[in-house]
Amino acid sequence: MNIGIGLSTAKDTFLATKEALHLAKKNITQERIDLAILFSTIEFAYAKTIQTVVSILGPVPLMGCTSAAVIANQGIFKRGIAVMLLGFPEGIYCNTAWVKEISKEGTRAAGEELGEKLLYGFKDLRRDFGMIFSDGLMEDGSGFISGLQERLGKVFPIVGASASDNLRFLKTFLYCNQEVMSRAACGILWGGKLNFGLGIKHGWKPLGKPRTVTKAEGNIVYEIDGVYAAKLYEDYLACDAEQLKKELNRVSTFYPLGLYLAGEEEYLLRNILSIQDDGSLVCHGNIPLDSSIRLMIGTKESCLNATQQACKEAQDGLLGRKSELIFVFDSISRYILLGREADKELEIIKNQFGQDMPIIGFYTYGEQAPLKAISYHGHAYSHNQTIAVLALGG
Amino acid sequence: MMSGSFSFTEILGTGAVLAVVSLLLVLWERAEKIKNLQKAVDNLKRSLDEMDEQAKLIVRTDMELNKTQEELDKKVAGLYALQKLTRAISTTLEESLIFRMVEPGHLEGLNFEKACGFLWNEKEKKFVLYLTIGYSEDETRIIRSSIEQDKNIYLDLIKNGKTLSSISQPKDDAALKRITDIFDVAYFVICPILPKEGNKGFLFVGTLNTDTSLTEGDEELITILVNQLGQALENARLFEKIWQSQQELEKKVEERTRALTFALEEVRAISKRKTDFISAVSHELRTPLTSIKGYAAILTAEKLGVLPPAAKERLEKINIHSDELVHMVNDLLDIARIEAGKTIMKIEDQDLRHIIANVADLIAIQCKNKNIDLLADIGEDVPLVLADRSQLERVFINLLGNAVKFTPQNGKITIQARLKEKTVEVDISDNGIGIPEESLTKLFQEFYRVDNAVNQEVKGTGLGLSLVKHIVEAHRGKIWVESFPNKGSTFSFTLPAKE
Predict the structure, then answer these.
(1) Which residue among A143, A233, A327, B487 has its CA within the 20 to 30 Å range from the CA of B464?
(2) Is B44 an interface residue toward A (CB < 8 Å)?
(3) In whole angstroms, how large is the CA radius of gyration of chain A?
(4) How far does Cα A231 stand from its chain's mean position?
């Protein structure tokens, strides 16, 4: 695979876009570009950015999104733009598609629509996996994934990441060919002689008594052990509902809920998006009724250990083949938890795959990936707080 | 045999009794086990509850630690951003560039994402926007007009040097609400920029982020930043002032230099004309003078017949005056030649001792006549000098001649010489009448004669010292004089020493 990555942190967004593209073009050794992937911080989310890209690259399929920070070989940048240009050798191909104006009620349908569009042209070709970028503020992420699986296949590997903004949780953006949009999702269906290895881990550990979800619907947990769900947090943190609401972002990042899944090495984490007036918790991802849940706690050390494990899993997934490119979809919660040590995750990845390995990624408001345990048949689930390391090899 | 009554054992039989007892025993044992199990379960439950309580403590402690860590990180990031920004600002000496040094990255480090900087323009009586971060053009326009509307609030802040922030005002304060609305922020700090000179202003920073609240520490960091901005503005203005003065000074120096160069050129042209004139005139004078002197000599020798004594006396006077005139013309010609660079100097190694001895012989009679002590003190370490012998002798003849002339009877003349770096300095001192201070600067000018009793009696051309100066300078030396009236004079000159 021919890969060119360009990064710029220049103050002027227009100049930065130009610089990143020129660097990427300089680094790719072939004329033909089959796919462009663009991750940027929120300052770049303007039509002008895409216009600049089009004026330089021409009509190349482009997918990407905004983030609180971009990840590249050079480091992690709270303001910047990273572009990756790919030229596929014979036998590797991809299809790109997007859906827009996704309504709150229509997420599942949007997932189905995206799946449908991605399959277009892939009828007799070998499909490897789907890469999905979606609006980070989409409430029913699980519904969207479920719709997508409806079309792509229940056990078809899907790796996804939700766009993020500058931690304001106000608006996130997707880059889809020549458009910048919110309330949208886009995807790349990869196929052909492509190998990939995926590692996804979080490092959070269970704490306190196991509890049972006694009333829930979709991503809303109404009651835990027969009392309103927010009581769990109020008890643990010794605070009232008002205080809890005020500190919800921090609480949710540091102490998410963990779902016990038989056969899985780690609990499936769920961040709390909001607390409703009746004390129910709106989660980032579904929590089924009767689930056994725990309060989870993470440390910097456990977080970095998880990064190491995710890298190893991704490497193992390639079954001894050489990796050519690494995608990193890292939860924004980890960025907050690690603080000044966030760079260490990148160091771990580089140490695993080599210092010169092309790396591109961003910080997400949610990740999507299959579960490993046999009982889950490789179904993709919404994850929170994880780092997903995806290694691609020819 | 007992009739009508049966014992329990009789009815059930012994075996059955045993079975019941066994059953009871088993049941009792089971009950004991269940009791123990229940106890264990209770214990486990209690342990679990205790563990849960411990977990709560862990979570609360962890939360506190995280908050502290976050605060610490925030402080470190703030200080780091402040240091970077301060460094950038302090290296800028252009007023218009100072605000441009504030970048979104710096603000982020200080936990703000929006900023505006205004300076009050005294002439136009309005606030001028110098910095805007985090606002679109439309938003900036609205902010500008709102500031114009509420300018008195901000002028008061500047006047009182007071910082206004979300934590300094009560939450229901009307001004606070208006500011948060106009600038579209959740928290803000407005701090006056107060340079000692020139226009003052204020910096606004704000954030929409409600996750972390504004602290007094944040306010302090902004105050430090604004003080730096004020200081930088002050420096820039001072620099501008100095730069402008320097420019004016440079302009003046340039103008003056041009004028001086022009004047120098003129002086040079005049000097050349003078030299040419003197040279021409001297040449023209020498020929008739030679004739006059020749005819006077013939007449005096009475080769053309005996002359009456009165006529002879007059002719002798003509001869003497002709000699003086020839001498003067020669001096003038020498000066003109040296000035024009036409004199060919035959630079050779010269021993000052020999030269001084030769010249001393020449003036020995005059010294004797006035009973003047002539002492030469030439140190052994004084090396040979590089000079034209005949010209150097003229220097000594002139200077010693003057010394004898102006030294009274029984006086003393001293010649000293010493090595100074790569030159030899010669001092000729006398204890004569000295030279008035006002004459010292003019002494080496052509035809200048000091107005004193001796000069009134003894005739002179006023060319001797000028010639000496020209000769010394032609040897790349310097000449100067120190004198105190009635105490004596010292003429000093330097010559290049042989290395």
Answers:
(1) B487
(2) no
(3) 20
(4) 30
**Cβ separation A79–B113 shorter than 8 A:** no
A389, A351 contact by CB (below 8 A): no
Cα–Cα dist B470/B447, whole Å: 14
- Gyration radius of chain B over CA positions: 56
Question: Distance between terminal CA atoms of chain A?
Answer: 7
pLDDT recorded at residue B1: 42
Q: Which of residues 62-121 of B touch A (CB under 8 A)?
A: 62-63, 66-67, 69-70, 73, 76, 103-105, 108, 113
Per-residue pLDDT tens digits for A11-39: 788 999 999 999 999 988 878 899 999 99
* Identity of the residue in B48, B56, B69 whose CB atom sits nearest the CB atom of A235: B56
Instruction: Number of A to B CB contacts under 8 A, please give it.
Output: 58
As given in the structure block, the two tokens for residue A173 are 């953006």
Which residues from A are below 8 Å from B51, CB to CB?
Answer: 208-209
One-character DSSP codes across A258-283: EE--TT-SSPEEE-EEEE-TTS-EEE
A326 and A391 Cβ atoms separated by less than 8 Å: yes
Which residue in the block uniquely carries the two structure tokens 């802040």? B157
CA-nearest of A3, A81, A82 to A44 is: A81
Amino acid, single-letter form, for residue A297? I
Q: State whether residue A185 is helix, strand or coil.
A: strand
Least confident of A79-88, A229-238, B214-223, B384-393: B214-223
Instruction: Give B-chain residues touching A236 at CB under 8 angstroms.
Output: 55-56, 59-60
Check whether A40 has a pLDDT greater than 90.
yes
Amino acid symbol at A224: I
Spatial separation of the C-alpha atoms in residues A145 and B412, rounded to whole Å: 122
Residues of B in contact with A250 (CB under 8 A): 63, 66-67, 70, 211
Alpha-carbon span B324 to B476, nearest angstrom? 30
Tell me how far apart the alpha carbons of residues A369 and A184 are, in angstroms, rounded to a whole number.
19
Contact A49, A13 (CB under 8 A): yes
- Report the residue from B59, B67, B211 with minimal CB separation from A207: B59
Residue A38 · residue A64 · CB < 8 Å: yes
Residue among A169, A340, A343 with most chain B CBs within 10 A, to mutate: A340
Contact A388, A334 (CB under 8 A): no
Q: What is the ipTM for the molecules in this complex?
A: 0.81
- The count of residues in chain B is 499
Q: Which of B52, B59, B105 sits opposite A297 (nearest CB)?
A: B59
Query: How far is B456 from B40, CA to CA, in rounded Å?
Result: 141
Which one is predicted more confidently, B91 or A78? A78
- pLDDT, averaged across chain A: 91
Give the distance, in angstroms, between the CA of residue B210 and the centroid of all CA atoms in the same chain: 50
